[in-house]
Design brief:
Elements (H helix, E strand, L loop, with lengths): L1 H9 L3 H14 L11 H29 L3 H29 L8 H7 L6 H23 L3 H13 L2 H36 L2 H25 L6 H5 L4 H6 L1 H13 L7 H35 L19 H16 L1 H27 L4 E2 L2 H22 L5 H9 L5 H27 L3 E2 L1 H23 L18 H26 L3 H26 L22
Parallel strand pairs: 1-2
């Protein structure tokens, strides 16, 4: 089988194969991968995480069906899991479209490098589509590798027929692929027609806003839309407008239609899925063809960025001139660079997912309630993701120009630059996460417990910021980066083995201390002591630190051992 696939690949044109590999590197631009990076290993790390999620979904489905004896409850649980898996696949596809926002359309580098070469525009288009489809297909396959077999098997057992398993299997995989293709092609359609109708410089500015809006929309819909997966909820007239507006319910109905279990009064919902899929595929095909035929020349002729026309520029004060310069440099790096926005958005997705889940529960409970330990743990995790996410983005360079400009203008001691970096971490990670937790805790009582928790959360943010500064003797977004250093699977398992149990223990300890003033005072003193100790440690080592702007690989010296 492997030899057959290899022969089929070798029959493809050589220019297509080369472009496919290069565009594949740019689709997965989370780590600023170089041409020499191990793409297979990088994709394997992401695949391992998604495979673990697929195993978890399968175990939940099996355990849930085994623990429920009532037939009506088992049927409602099956409907809930069907919609959950489809909605989760749509969310993963949506996050993929945010990560690979402009990867399918031609940019200035493509036109400048490939136009003088004898490469047809259709070859560039097909190579970009195949690169994006490869990563999206890997996401679909790995996220459903186990659940795509377990769920049809369990549903087939409920039907008491072997034919039911094969029917469920085909229906499940077709629905998953169709739902992913619908969302991906819909985003391509919006991007393509926006690029056709607007000048390029305006399109690039609007594209960044659309990227952030799509990111918020996908997360908001996933966590805030109600679950209408019982027969009574699906038939209620008040819920029909929500069903008509939600693509996840369209494809939920499509799966049951293909499976032969859809009630006749919901056929109109499955028809929306068929119609939406057809329109999305046609819109994406037309917009891509027009973009490659009409906008490639415009990409070269029109500048990507132009000077601002206005003369008024407001610059907020961030302390000293150096603190203000580094803070503004961080703001502009995060807002103007797609690579840094996408990398930071990965961690922000975790923060906002936690926040939206709590917002949904608070909207359901109108009456104020006591501060639960689950909320304490969730706020701790929000702060952790925000701080470590920004720290990971700080290590990625914005450009070599910024590297050399800040290197040649280093006129102050190193500890001043490190203090400015600390201020940026506190301002752009700790303060937003703290404010978000404060807004989510408005419905909890008593207010004194909320204030005490916000004090502990602020101290935790200070501790995490100091931990991130240990050995970080460089200016954010400037030091050259050696790609392929991080291990996604190692980070994933470290979170479950270290961070999550520690957050559970801290939330339980704080929850017990909230009702005991003396115990809470000792709890806060311990946090303050750790934070100040780390602060003093970093300040002492910053006095003798030397800022570095180059990541140099370690020298490997091979000896023959002849001295013995």
């Amino acid at each position: 089988m492997h030899d057959l696939i290899q022969k089929l690949i070798e029959r493809l044109p050589l220019d297509f194969r080369i472009l496919h590999r290069q565009f594949l590197l740019r689709v997965i631009d989370l780590e600023a991968l170089s041409i020499q990076a191990d793409v297979t290993g990088f994709l394997g790390q992401f695949a391992g995480v998604l495979i673990m999620l697929s195993i978890v979904h399968s175990v939940v489905m099996y355990v849930g069906l085994e623990s429920i004896q009532d037939p009506d409850a088992r049927y409602a649980f099956c409907l809930h899991m069907q919609h959950y898996l489809i909605a989760t696949m749509i969310l993963v596809t949506g996050l993929f479209t945010v990560i690979s926002w402009d990867a399918t359309f031609p940019d200035r580098r493509d036109v400048m490098v490939l136009s003088p070469l004898p490469v047809a525009p259709r070859t560039i288009l097909f190579a970009k589509l195949s690169a994006s489809a490869s990563v999206l297909g890997l996401s679909i396959l790995t996220l459903n590798c186990m659940s795509g077999l377990v769920v049809p098997f369990l549903l087939g057992m409920l039907h008491n027929s072997s034919w039911g398993f094969y029917q469920c299997l085909v229906a499940y995989w077709f629905t998953i692929v169709a739902a992913s293709a619908f969302l991906y092609c819909s985003v391509l359609t919006i991007q393509g027609f926006t690029a056709l109708l607007l000048p390029r410089r305006i399109f690039l500015r609007l594209s960044a806003l659309l990227q952030l809006a799509a990111f918020g929309l996908f997360l908001g819909v996933y966590y805030l839309q109600p679950s209408l997966t019982t027969p009574a909820a699906l038939a209620t007239p008040q819920n029909q407008w929500l069903l008509a507006c939600s693509p996840s319910y369209w494809f939920f109905a499509l799966f049951n239609q293909l499976n032969g279990t859809l009630p006749s009064q919901l056929f109109w919902l499955a028809s929306r899925a068929w119609l939406g899929l057809a329109l999305a595929l046609c819109g994406a095909a037309v917009s891509l063809l027009l973009c490659y035929m009409r906008t490639m020349k415009k990409t070269v002729e029109e500048p990507d960025l132009v000077p601002g026309a206005g003369s008024f520029h407001f610059v907020p004060s961030f302390g000293s001139s150096l603190h203000a310069a580094i803070a503004l440099f961080c703001i502009r790096s995060l807002t103007r660079s797609r690579q840094h926005r996408v990398a930071f958005a990965f961690y922000l997705a975790l923060v906002f997912a936690i926040a939206l889940s709590w917002l949904r529960s608070e909207l359901a409970n109108a009456a104020p309630s006591a501060l639960p330990s689950d909320f304490l743990m969730s706020s701790f995790m929000m702060m952790t993701f925000a701080v470590f996410g920004l720290r990971s983005v700080f290590a990625l360079p914005i450009s070599l120009t910024a590297n050399w400009v800040l290197r040649t203008t280093q006129l102050r001691p190193s500890q001043v630059y490190i203090a400015a970096t600390r201020g940026a971490l506190l301002l752009f990670a700790v303060v937003p996460a703290w404010l978000l937790a404060g807004v989510l805790s408005l419905s909890f009582r008593p207010a004194s417990h909320v204030a005490d928790h916000l004090l502990i959360l602020a101290l935790l943010g200070w501790i995490l910021s100091e931990l991130c500064l240990i050995g970080f003797y460089k200016v954010p977004f400037t030091c050259s980066y050696l790609p392929g250093k991080s291990n996604i699977q190692l980070v994933f398992w470290a979170f479950f083995i270290v961070c999550l149990p520690l957050a559970v223990w801290l939330s339980s300890a704080e929850h017990d201390a909230l009702n005991q003033p003396f115990k809470f005072a000792g709890f806060a003193i311990v946090f303050f002591g750790i934070a100040f100790g780390l602060f003093d440690y970093n300040r002492f080592h910053a006095k003798s630190a030397v800022l570095y702007f180059e990541e140099i690989p370690e020298e490997v010296i091979t000896t023959l051992g002849l001295n013995a």
